[in-house]
Design goal:
3 domains, alpha+beta, Alpha-Beta Plaits, Trigger factor, domain 2, Chitinase A, domain 3, about 450 residues
């Protein structure tokens, strides 16, 4: 077998491959034997049809099988011979296939970029300045008070912090989003930021038995994609107004919601939780920022086939979660994400090779032990669970990723936040450290 690189442009290689005539003839002979043995031809017993009949009846199928078999055997050998690190399946170009002749074909293939070195000098991060403010602790306490509020009906006009039970009648729905016209017993929390603005503004002041028409302009980023960017009009009949009686933030409250003895202990616990949350957010931001800087320091091309495979996966995920979406828009929107993700995968893999960063058996063992401790099981059982879920390779990848970032942190210069911003021209800034309060449920209106 012979092979040569006919042309090279960027990451695309045009590989010319020649399969000798003896292998071609052997492949044809094997295909003839197979088709003759399996063919059901009227007038002939199985395996007894003349070769001329087999060739005439199955010529196209036989040629397709022979070509596929010869490429399957010759292409990997050619790739190895030319020392190519391929990144895509080959696209077949011109070829000639005839009995008694050598097979010559062209394979177009993308290769991985060749990376001799990976630069990591000049990395910068701002000095950690994690603070938890009293106002953030207050916000969590307020959230807990609302969560544990007593709800009771009242006979007065609705106020901004009330919950209303309303019956809705659909008046206008140009996109026919809602199936049906009447929707009874809807709870609308006027104090929730997740309740659309038009409801919060329009039905304050209504009492039980009163009604009002409300036109809702759902924002483009509304949580339910069916309503996002749409305009609907409703008639709202208030059935009941309910007020929230918030518990006093005292020691009794602290025992109920936090399992601690005093409100001071509860506030200290909240402060510690917020600090841990901010530290987690900060670590995630550092990883993203170091990834960005490494990509900037090491510009490389990425194989288009890998980008398309990534986007194919995104489209598949969207199709599972959304009935209607614009595939072209998804591919355009996520293309930069795909390119940067692939760049980092290539760079980090090469960095691990060059710096001999690897996952040792003890690393995996320690990870599994921590997993076992967290879920209160013995290590043997933990290994069984992880093996059955095929997570072992995922665990190794995660550990390697952590080790790579640990290495990069040894290369980082820590500077003040102002210096950091100035060095990047304000392009990248640490993530905001405002608290995220879990537990809010999406309002469906």
């Amino acid at each position: 077998m012979k092979s040569s690189i006919k042309s090279a442009k960027g990451l695309v290689r045009e590989l010319e491959i020649e399969v000798p005539v003896d292998l071609v003839d052997a492949a044809f002979a094997e295909a003839y034997h197979k088709y003759r043995k399996d063919a059901q031809i009227k007038g002939f017993r199985p395996g007894k049809a003349p070769l001329a009949v087999i060739k005439s009846k199955f010529n196209d199928d036989i040629r397709e099988d022979v070509l596929s078999e010869l490429i399957k055997k010759s292409y990997p050998l050619a790739v190895k011979e030319q020392n190519l690190h391929v990144a895509s399946y080959p696209a077949l170009g011109d070829y000639t296939l005839n009995e008694g002749e050598a097979l010559r074909y062209i394979a177009h293939v993308e290769v991985m970029p060749e990376i001799l070195t990976v630069k990591s000098d000049g990395l910068k991060l701002p000095v950690d300045e994690i603070q938890v403010f009293d106002s953030e602790v207050d916000a969590v306490v307020d959230y807990l008070r609302k969560k544990h509020a007593e709800i009771r009906p009242v006979s007065r006009p609705a106020q901004a912090n009330d919950i209303l039970v309303v019956d809705l009648v659909k008046l206008e729905d140009p996109s026919n989003i809602l199936k049906g016209n009447e929707f009874k017993g809807n709870e609308i929390d006027l104090s929730s930021s997740l309740t659309v603005k038009e409801f919060r503004d329009s039905i304050v002041g209504l009492s039980a038995g009163e009604e009002k028409e409300v036109t809702v302009n759902y924002p483009p980023d509304y949580s339910d994609e069916r309503f996002a960017g749409k305009i609907l009009k409703y008639r709202c009949l208030v059935q009941e107004v309910r007020e929230k009686i918030l518990p006093e933030p005292n020691d009794s409250f602290a025992k109920t919601v936090g399992g601690v003895e005093t409100i001071l202990e509860l506030r200290l616990k909240i402060r510690e939780d917020l600090k841990k949350q901010k530290e987690t957010e900060q670590e995630k931001w550092k990883k993203n920022e170091l990834t960005r800087q490494m990509i900037d320091l090491n510009p490389i091309e990425v194989p288009e086939a890998m980008v398309q495979n990534y986007l194919d996966g995104m489209v598949e995920d969207f199709s599972k979660n959304y009935k209607n979406f614009d595939e072209k828009q998804v591919r355009e929107q996520y293309r930069p994400v795909a390119v940067n993700s692939i760049k980092w995968h290539i760079l980090s893999s090469r960095l691990a090779e060059l710096e001999k960063i690897e996952v040792l058996p003890i690393d995996t063992e320690n990870w599994i032990k921590r997993f076992a401790d967290n879920y209160q099981m013995d290590v043997t059982r933990a290994k069984e669970v992880l093996s059955n879920s095929r997570r072992i390779q995922e665990i190794r990848d995660s550990i390697l990723d952590e080790k790579i970032f640990e290495f990069l942190l040894t290369k980082v210069s820590f500077v003040s936040l102002d210096t950091f911003k100035a060095s990047l021209g304000g392009e990248s800034q640490p993530a905001a450290s405002s608290p995220t309060i879990a537990g809010d449920e999406e309002n469906k209106l």
